[in-house]
């Protein structure tokens, strides 16, 4: 989809800037960000506010930064 392509390019730019390792899989990172938001919306009904999305972004970004490099 067009939207996933745009999101993938954001991840690639972070890899290019060395903010994420080259082992970072864009599709996995995108799913890790979007999944909790949809879960919250569809299953719990809790609000999705800036504080929540900031926490998700920080959690996923920190996790992606610590991906093991291929050896």
Please give a structural write-up.
With about 70 residues, the protein is mainly α. It contains three helices and no strands. The chain has helices spanning about 1-15, 25-45, 50-65. The mean pLDDT is about 90.
List keywords for this structure.
mainly alpha; 71 residues
How is the topology of this model organized?
Layout: H1 2-16, H2 26-44, H3 50-65
Helix pairs in contact: 1-2, 2-3
Number of strands: 0
* Helix-strand pattern: HHH
Largest sheet: none
Low-confidence stretches: none
Helix run count = 3
Secondary structural class: mainly alpha
Overall shape: globular
Content of β-strand: under 5%
Sum this structure up briefly.
This protein is mainly α and 71 residues long. The protein is built from three helices and no strands.
């Amino acid at each position: 989809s067009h939207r996933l392509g745009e999101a993938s390019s954001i991840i690639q730019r972070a890899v290019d800037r060395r903010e994420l390792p080259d082992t970072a899989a864009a599709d996995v990172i995108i799913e890790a960000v979007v999944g909790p938001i949809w879960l919250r919306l569809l299953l719990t009904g809790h609000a999705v506010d800036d504080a929540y999305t900031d926490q998700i972004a920080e959690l996923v970004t920190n996790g992606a930064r610590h991906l093991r490099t291929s050896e």
